[in-house]
């Protein structure tokens, strides 16, 4: 919403410069994005939230400025010169669909001369980005920007029987709108019609057959109130978003309709001549009484933790239109703890319905900076969420490994989500999605992780390590299921090029190593080859806990066919683990931990360069060594892997390092040699291993 500084001053005495006013308005909750200089003067660009339709007019912004300045607002009271003949003797209005149109006012003007608008009006509209059309149309737009309520002018002589009927559209009915496009209408749409045909899409746009032209002389001026939901659906269905629909779909003020109509009639009379017939045809089937809201100082103190003087409270609420009346029996005692005010909800502030809403209005204009930061008193003891300790431990380890935590929006395109969805799970579809690519809740954490990697890679990030702890959603057997999962994503290099080191791309061994470090907190990890279809065959594994039963997740490289759907050209590595079994493993491992004093005696390392069949994995080597149950074996590590050269085809060389340490004495060479011999014998017997010569 663009706000003309000079126009604003017609409603309130603004003593601040435009820049200072913009700053004060922003601090009070009306965000001013910038100031632009125009021939009509400075223009403030205000960002208006959807719950504040009253700010889509200069009068509404003036009320906010008045509250900032603690000054009165000058609300216009238009009074056009009226002829003796009455408007209701010429025009008739019928609302056949009151659920779609809550109020309809019609004024009649005769003998109007259509022509260009005066310079002052045209300059103001152009400063707001509105093109000048003619004096009558410009007058309706001017009043819309002034009072925040949309109007429309019909050529009275083109209306059949000079009668207005507000009804639902007939199935298959068509109408050409002012933009020259023929629209096909549906039964759900609200139409303004005459005795023969539809002449306007209610709250959205008028029709071409009744528009104001240079030949028009007699006018019917419409100012109505249309149902916000109906206008929103109609605007979206027709692909037609207008200044009028923006205001009506946010719930415009129904009480403003008659005043805006009167103001527009007066303005047209001033710039286009003619006579205004007496009175107004006003059909208002369901007028609602104004609600009353009580504000007490006790609640203000409870919510905000600090006081606001009586005078400030009353000045702010009065400027905003709430008409506060002191109702406690101690008016003489200012700033009393028992102070209370009875306020009337203005018709333009449907968003203020409770006492806490009034407190917010007072607080934002008094200044949030004047309230000390203070947590409210807890009414019950706080407790941590289930498995919070396990999640913290996993999070700390991942951060130490160089991963960055992400928080993703859990909405996904259904076709992309289906690529990762577990077998047998039905998607959790959203009833009214904001967009087609956000139609389901994610059924897998890997889908949103790939999307996060894609977003970063497309913006120049190359070496990525990301993780997220979140929930995935779906239906199993018709029942909704929410499952907490841990998702990891990596791309780029595991080691960047340095003075002494060459660059190395991130690979499966890096992902497996990170998972091993991560799952040490849960008792250790086991991995077996294979995974879901969205992982690359031969570069995927199923992850389980050493002490657990069954798989806890999968890890590997994203399959090329899936990567192509996301237009990814880089290798992407993923892991998805269920948090529940990890948390149980963490708690069991933590409970089983025992204090062990640091060893007093030195450790001994022995390296074994083994030649193994390609089918033999390091896990099998480590398992064969552990099966010896030698208490001095502290650690088993894979140090190097080599293929080619003198190594026969179908085999590989694996360098395994075993750390030996006794807690009773220093190991002798004979003891070390004995353990090494037993290890070699076991590997030869169980795995067909051979020591590599040289």
- Report the radius of gyration as a whole number of Å: 37 Å
* Percentage of residues assigned to helices: 25-40%
**Strands of the biggest beta sheet: in what spatial order?**
20-24-25-31-30-29-28
**What kind of oligomer do you see?**
single chain
The total of helices stands at 19
Look at the helices and sheets and give the structural class.
alpha+beta
Q: Are there runs of 5+ residues with pLDDT below 50, and where?
A: none
How many strands, which pairing sense, and closed or not: the largest β-sheet? 7 strands, mixed
**pLDDT averaged over residues:** 93
Strand content: 25-35%
Q: How would the global form be characterised?
A: elongated
Distance between the termini: 81 Å
Please count the beta strands (DSSP E, at least 2 residues each). 35
Would you write up a description of this structure?
With 694 residues, the chain is of the alpha+beta class. The termini are far apart. α10 crosses α11. The protein is elongated and about 125 Å long. The mean pLDDT is 93. Strands 20-24-25-31-30-29-28 form a seven-stranded mixed beta sheet.
Quick recap:
This protein is α+β, with helices and mostly antiparallel strands and 694 residues long.
Task: List strands and helices in order, with pairings.
Elements lengths: L1 E3 H4 L9 H10 L3 E8 L2 E7 L10 H12 L12 E5 L5 E4 L5 E10 L8 H9 L7 H13 L4 E4 L7 E6 L5 E3 L5 E3 L5 E4 L4 E4 L3 E2 L12 E8 L1 H11 L4 H6 L7 H17 L2 E4 L2 E3 L8 E5 H8 L5 H10 L5 E2 L13 E5 L10 H12 L21 H13 L3 E2 L5 E2 L1 H7 L7 E2 L10 E2 L3 H13 L6 E13 L2 E13 L1 E3 L8 E2 L2 H12 L5 E5 L5 E11 L5 E8 L1 H6 L6 E7 H14 L11 E10 L4 H9 L6 E10 L8 E10 L8 H19 L2 E2 L3
Parallel strand pairs: 4-15, 5-8, 20-24
Antiparallel strand pairs: 1-3, 2-3, 6-14, 6-15, 6-16, 7-14, 8-11, 9-10, 11-12, 12-13, 17-19, 18-19, 21-23, 22-23, 24-25, 25-31, 26-27, 28-29, 29-30, 30-31, 32-34, 32-35, 33-34
Helix pairs in contact: 3-10, 4-5, 5-8, 9-11, 10-11, 18-19
């Amino acid at each position: 919403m663009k706000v003309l500084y000079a126009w604003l001053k017609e409603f309130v005495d603004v003593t601040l410069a435009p820049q200072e006013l913009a700053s004060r308005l922003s601090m009070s909750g009306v965000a001013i994005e910038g100031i632009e200089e125009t021939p009509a003067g400075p223009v403030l660009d205000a960002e208006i939230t959807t719950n504040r339709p009253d700010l889509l007019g200069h009068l509404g912004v003036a009320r906010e400025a008045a509250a900032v300045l603690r000054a009165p607002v000058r609300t216009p009271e238009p009074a056009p010169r009226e002829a003796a003949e009455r408007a209701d003797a010429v025009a008739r209005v019928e609302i056949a669909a009151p659920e779609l149109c809550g109020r309809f006012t019609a004024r009649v003007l005769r003998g109007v001369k259509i022509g260009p608008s005066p310079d002052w009006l045209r300059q103001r509209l152009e400063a707001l980005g509105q093109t000048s059309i003619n004096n009558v149309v410009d007058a309706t737009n001017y009043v819309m920007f002034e009072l925040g309520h949309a109007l429309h002018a019909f050529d009275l002589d083109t209306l059949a029987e000079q009668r207005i009927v507000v009804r639902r559209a007939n199935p298959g009915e068509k109408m050409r709108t002012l933009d020259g496009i023929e629209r096909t209408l549906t039964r759900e749409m609200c139409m303004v019609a005459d005795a023969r045909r539809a002449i306007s899409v209610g709250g959205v746009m008028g029709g071409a057959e009744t528009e104001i032209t240079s030949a028009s002389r007699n006018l019917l001026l419409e100012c109505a109130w249309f149902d916000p939901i109906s206008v929103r659906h109609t605007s979206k269905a027709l692909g037609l978003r207008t200044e009028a629909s923006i205001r009506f779909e946010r719930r415009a003020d129904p009480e403003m309709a008659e005043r805006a109509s009167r103001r527009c009639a007066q303005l047209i009379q001033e710039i286009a001549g003619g006579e205004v017939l007496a009175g107004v045809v006003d059909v208002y089937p369901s007028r609602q009484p104004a609600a009353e809201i009580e504000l007490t100082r006790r609640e203000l103190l409870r919510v905000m933790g600090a006081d606001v003087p009586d005078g400030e409270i009353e000045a702010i609420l009065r400027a905003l239109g709430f008409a506060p009346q002191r109702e406690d029996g101690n008016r003489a005692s200012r700033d009393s703890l028992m102070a209370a005010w009875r306020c009337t909800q203005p018709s333009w502030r449907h968003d203020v319905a409770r006492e806490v809403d009034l407190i917010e209005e007072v607080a934002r204009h008094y200044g949030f900076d004047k309230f000390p930061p203070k947590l409210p008193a807890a009414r019950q003891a706080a407790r941590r969420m289930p498995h919070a300790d396990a999640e913290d431990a996993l999070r700390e380890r991942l951060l130490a490994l160089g991963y960055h935590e992400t928080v993703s929006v859990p909405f996904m395109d259904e076709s992309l989500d289906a690529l990762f969805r577990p077998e047998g799970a039905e998607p959790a579809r959203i009833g009214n999605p904001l967009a087609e690519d956000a139609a389901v809740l994610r059924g897998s954490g890997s889908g949103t992780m790939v999307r996060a990697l894609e977003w970063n890679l497309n913006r120049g990030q190359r070496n990525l390590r990301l993780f997220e702890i979140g929930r995935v959603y779906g239906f199993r057997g018709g029942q909704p299921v929410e499952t907490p999962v841990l998702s990891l994503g990596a791309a780029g290099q595991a080691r960047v090029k340095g003075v002494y080191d060459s660059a190395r791309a991130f690979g499966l061994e890096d992902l497996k190593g990170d998972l091993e470090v991560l799952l040490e907190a849960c008792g250790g990890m086991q991995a077996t080859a294979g995974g879901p279809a969205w992982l690359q065959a031969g570069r995927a594994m199923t992850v389980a806990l050493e002490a657990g039963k069954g798989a806890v997740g999968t890890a590997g490289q994203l399959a090329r066919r899936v990567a192509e759907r996301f237009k990814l050209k880089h290798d992407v590595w993923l892991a998805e683990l269920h948090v529940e079994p990890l948390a149980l493993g963490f708690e069991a491992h933590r409970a089983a931990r025992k204090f062990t004093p640091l060893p007093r005696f030195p450790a001994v390392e022995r390296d074994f360069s083994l030649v193994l069949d390609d089918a033999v994995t390091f896990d099998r080597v480590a398992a064969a060594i552990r099966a010896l149950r030698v208490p001095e074996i502290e650690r088993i590590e894979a140090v190097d892997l080599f293929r080619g050269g003198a190594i026969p085809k179908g085999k590989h060389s694996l360098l395994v390092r075993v750390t030996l340490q006794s807690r009773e004495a220093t190991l002798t060479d004979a003891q070390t040699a004995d353990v090494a011999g037993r290890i070699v014998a076991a590997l030869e017997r169980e795995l067909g291993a051979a020591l590599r010569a040289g």
